[in-house]
Predict the 3D structure of the following.
Amino acid sequence: MHYSLWSVLREGLSGGKGWTPAWRDPEPKAEYDAIIVGGGGHGLASAYYLAKEHGLTNIAVIEKGYIGSGNVGRNTTIIRSNYLLPGNIPFYEHSLKLWEGLEQDFNYNAMVSQRGVINLFHSDSDRDRYVRRGNAMMFEGVKAEYLDREGVRSFAPFLDFDNARFPIHGGLLQRRGGTVRHDAVAWGYARGADQRGVDILQNTEVTGIKVEHGKAVGVETSRGFIRSRKIGLACAGNSSRVAAMAGLRLPIESHVLQAFVSEGVKPLINQVILYGAGHFYISQSDKGGLVFGGDIDGYNTYAQRGNLYTIEDVFEAGMAMWPGLGRLRMLRQWGGIMDMSMDGSPIIGLTPIDGLYVNCGWCYGGFKATPASGWCFAHTIARNEPHQLNAAYRLDRFATGHLIDERGTGAQPNQH
Amino acid sequence: MAEAMLTKRFALAGIMVPGRHGKLIGEAGVTIRVVGDIAVAHVSARKGQNAALLLVLARMVGAPVADQPQRVARDTLSITGISPGQWRLVVRGHNSEATLRAAIAELQESAVVTELGDGLFLADISGPRARAALAKGIAIDLHPGAFKVGAAAQTSASHIGLHLALIDDKPTFEMISAASTAGSLWSWLTSSCGEYGCDISV
Amino acid sequence: MRIGCPYCGERWNDEFVVLGDADAMMKHPAEATFALFYDYVYLRDNPAGRHRELWYHQGGCRQWLVVTRDTLTHAVHGVETARCAAQDIEAAS
Amino acid sequence: MSAQPYRLATGGLIDRKRPCHFRFDGREYTGFAGDTLASALLANGVSLVGRSFKYHRPRGLLSSGAEEPNALIELRRGAAREPNTRATTIELFDGLEAQSQNRWPSLGFDLLSLNRWAAPFLGAGFYYKTFMWPASFWEKVYEPLIRRAAGLGRAAGADDPDHYEKSFAHCDILVIGAGPAGLMAALTAGRAGARIILANEDFAAGGQLHGDGGNINGTAAAAWVNGVIAELAAMPHVQIMPRTTIYGVYDGATYGAVERVNDHLLSVPAFEPRQRHWRIHARRAVLASGAGERPLMFANNDLPGIMLASAARTYLQRFAVKPAGRVVIATSCDDGWASVDAALAAGVAIAAIVDTRSEVDEALLSLGRRSGAAIYCGGDVVKAHGGHRVGAITIRNATGSNTRHACDGVWMSGGFSPLIHLTSHLGARPQWDEQLQAFVPGQNLPAGLAVAGAACGDFALGACIAAGQRAGIEAAQACGFSAPAAEPILCPETSAAVGVITLPRTAAGPVFVDFQNDVTAKDIALAAREGYSSPELAKRYTTLGMATDQGKTANINGMALLAAARGKSIAQTGTTVYRPPYTPVSFGALAGHHRSKDFRATRLTPAHHWAQEQGAVFMEAGAWMRAAWFPKAGESDWVESVIRETKATRSSVGLCDVSTLGKIDIQGADAGVFLDRVYCNTFSTLAVGRARYGLMLREDGFVMDDGTTSRLAPAHFLMTTTTSNASKVMQHLEFCHQALWPDLDLHMVSVSEHWAQYSLAGPRSRDVLQRLVDRQHDISNEAFPYMGAREITISGGLPARLYRISFSGELAYELAVPARYGDATVRALMAAGGEFGITPYGLETLNAMRIEKGHVTGSELNGTTTARDLGLGRMMSTKKHYIGRVMEERPALRDERRWQLVGLKPVDRSHRLKAGGHLVGRHEPAVTANDQGYVTSASYSPMLEQWIGLGLLSAGDKRHGEIIRACDLLRQSEVEVEVCNPVFFDPKGERLHG
């Protein structure tokens, strides 16, 4: 059913008995035109755009648990396109544009809130790097603003300007950046895809990928074999494990990124603020909770939890940036498994196996990329070739040396 | 000699203020004595010379030395294990540099010795609340049953690397850390001792 | 998480720096062929379960260690120095 | 105003001799030491304490502990204000000030309570379905309104004035909770000699014993508790930590805890922290966290006056407060009946007792009959009536007819759920126990953790105590202590707390499941109907369990409703996973000492104080503080200082502190071989007494670091690294040695801290040095040429090292002395240079001079540049293998269009060039397609008397002389620049050899 003010009023008056399931719970078919493995944000978005943009409707999304149980439900909800390198900016900017029209597009309020993202810098060399980044954005037609110290103060007077170990010199502002209600993204795409005929198979685990003569032919699942000549993997932290089912080794390590939310308080900050002298970023949700995070724990893991050191590190950076946080409290912490790539940038593309496509390597950047990732992956699967927007995200770039290394830390995934 | 021409400046000069700190009432729970004059060398066993080196080191301090994180001392000279086949020699007191050089001469055959120019500071921390104060930054177990007299550890406090050894059961902990971060470590240490009252002396 | 350093004893993971898959990263190719080096630099095991990996005890004895750890439970099943492990590799090859 | 009208005349664990005056919403009240804010408010007849999140419904105290969803207040004032603090856990102190929150204009009259009339439209997830039109209204209209209405209390909005700290602890056994099971576990293991930490969230030990009373071993419960605590306190190996919450379990038997050291005082005493964060390593742990009572589900079950039965008993017996005068007891378990005696003893009338079970033990029934209450077995509470407080209740009896009873309190018990949060922090899923009607700890508990007492379903006191004893024995034995055999503890048979979860059978109004977030039974049903039917989806869609109490009283009822809506059992549906923290933890505690200047260590060089005396302006360079420039009177900005410092240096002599460089001492027979492998150029051929510039690549072929390395003896090298990469390079070299080539005869030690190092640059630098260097060392140009490196002595015997190397392009030396002599040496150099006008210079001048010379630093060595990019391709040896060689040969790294290092000069000499601008063709638009590189560094050049810069430009090597544009669109500046050789000044390097 279509969601609208009227449907809410009508159902309110009639006791809500008319609300129908947001998506079906279908039985798997024997064969699909395309299968997406992974019912997270990227997988659901891929299915949605395959149906919407490429007219493929006989498709299935196969999810081991419940939809959105991966990183789309465990992140700090930030969206932005303030990237540095040519391979990245157009892609993330496309993503931001899709975010901007998403709710009307899939008729679900994901609360896309373009409240602004500020990256703080704390030294002259930091500043030069951010200026370079801001200019890269401006060259792409993406508006960025340079804030000096006083400029930052006008947005966030509560930061530590007077007694900081690393004084704030200024910031780079992208006003179009912001936050999104993360769970709603998965739900909106799921509902949109379902309405276009996509089968969302929850609690269905892929246990094998069948390849014959170098071509993908289908997947073994906990509910039987499902045939398909196009299989897209969008498995985030589990990418290596799933790709291994097809005998594929990926330049990926799985790491845990922890995130946190505070108790709800009345509005304190509007922007998303990223600290430059330590790994810390924070925003406030519409419910009032401060949502924040820091660095990955740094060791390979598939356990969706982290350790105390990283937690303490995040809070130290938080207090260093904003000493008024002291009496607020962490309410809940969680961890998501990040598919950290060897250059810190994603991989969306073909593989050496015909009909098998990968979408992985999102590092921290997966959430904000969700719409463009789905959009590009859908294109890549439908046309069997990448779109110009994801052309740089080839799997073979590590062999050719066409790396997209924003941080310049090289083949060390836990440094990206 | 050089000492006559150029004077040394100790790492904690301008940072450490002798006297009572923190809580003023009652006996000080922690006593910190800063040993200003030290000389330090890094000793690494030459290939195949580990056993020979251990004998030389043992002779120097008149007690067995093991390839373990332990501190053995005689008079002003101490030898502390810091890594397999590696030790740190520390001489305290006025004639520290000369004493150290004499020791180094004995070691040449079995070890590669790197004289460190003393970018370090050393403090003895003792008193009934010393363990409680140190536990505010040091993550290893300092319980007398776990960290016994003679035990040594390289670890950190307040994100700053340091070397800790227990030299007697008063207890007195020897702490050695880099000069460059001495001010920050000092800020942590004195803040941690504050609630117990702290006597600082040179 | 706590890692038992063979020299220093058990310490929290704050004191360590992690590099990654020990089996891949310690087998520095003897031959300078591109294929071998591509594997060496970019393809590391990323298993769910037991994993041998390189940890550096930066905050302690500064030794590189090979830690066998379960990536699902974070349980540490064994620690040896990289020096010993490397000598084993050499002896085996 | 009558003082504490609801305080009982006797009893309670309160100190009636120590009255505490406090304010709530501006009104003054009095309580006693030993009270919580909640009990003190109740004693004063305050039953309305908060408003709910969504509908702003009036709320009273539901509980007496950490699970409280309703009584959230703002504690203290000004910068110390703490929002969302649970009144049930605040220890009362004299001078306490608290305010209600999330209401306007007042708690009694809250305009947003009008929301309740819109409730039919505000069901679960309503916001996902609306607020989308027009698109621009979300951010402009809807969201600001929602944000303002949402949120709970107000943050202080000022810097936290208090101090926090952290501490580490280790023990054999950590006992979590000091109720009967925890006390017994600690006592048993403590007697066996184990090192124990007994952590208790409450300020008083005893747990629910204080609510339920009774006798243990013939003494009153409170006395028994005191006896155990006294015995434990006398054991030196036992640490009792009251006011300490174990909030999380982490890997490696690590427990996170927060000790509220001084939250029970008006202000924090000097030198003490407000709170202390503990990281505890425990070989074994005993979780004795008890159990939490579940509310019953009926319409308007959230009205003030309706509370958990165990909480009511706690207020009556621990705090000597009468929460109500006439109550209805509503229960689905035997334990609810325990309130009958407690009520009667305190003079509380019982209007009715409702038990949802049709069969109730005869002993309970006769107890009930003695109270004179109407008794309904197999009945239901249909609905509570009232405004700001419950005034009556409608009960449906087993045959379906309704009766209304007037009352001012309802004490309810829906059975108990073990508090097993900590058991699932490492991933173990709770399991449904049909017998207990509760989730119990699942398989795969955290290593070393055992659960005892009510937390494990041992609800009866005797079983609870026995379980504690057993856990103590097992834990002690596991730690190697011989524990005594269990001894019998005598205590009364208590009623079982096993309760049947009863779903609401009628819908006479909103039935609250999650009180704080206003999640109703209807919301859960809606979520299930709409497909959000897994527990995690239902939770996220309805916000069940996501409030500040994390659903402690809500989750199990919610899961029962969800299971029912899906037509499944609770065992089939399961529950959500508990994540840390058990109760919220303050930012301050988790940050500890590390805020403001103490966030991270500051590194100072040995000459820092000297530089300070010279009036240096410092800048942060990583952890270091480095002199940026040395302003003289009359200089208005750094450029003027740089001009003076550079000119003085280039014309005579300047001095710069370069102590921050990384320095690694490398010795051993294979040192040369090793350096050949880690540097791309060759070092084994370097002569003793010489230095060479070295370039180190990463294994992936990109440049990692650079620096000069000197050979001091045949088997002794001294490597320098850049300041920022010092630790990374050391780690890399150790890896190469230990993991790749362990057989090399090699010894490495970082000596960065141990050598203070000063650069003396300029034509008179040798003249200055000669005054310090002892006479036996010949440092003439012939004896000690460019790139010489030597161990010398200065000032009459001080060992030092001298390198003739130059970053500035001048005749220059770096003199290294032991760190303790750094301060004296710099002063001696300044004195010796006085007659030449020696000038100290800082990083800015260093930067200006190195750009003039085209030397690269971190801005160019940014991890994405190759040796070729930087014009250093020739350094890569073709005669040997080295790290990075193979991957450097990848096509993309050899592409001729790569960005290469160039010099950039504004065509108009008056234009200023800034780093960060991108490079495009002279007449091309500034768009990505034309992006050809960027300005990596820029400075004013005192020698060229204009701004100059270095840049990375596509195929830049071949474009010298071309005019292009540096576009800094971000700062609205575009400068035409000429591409040139990056060496601007003295391109032939003649000055070096002077």
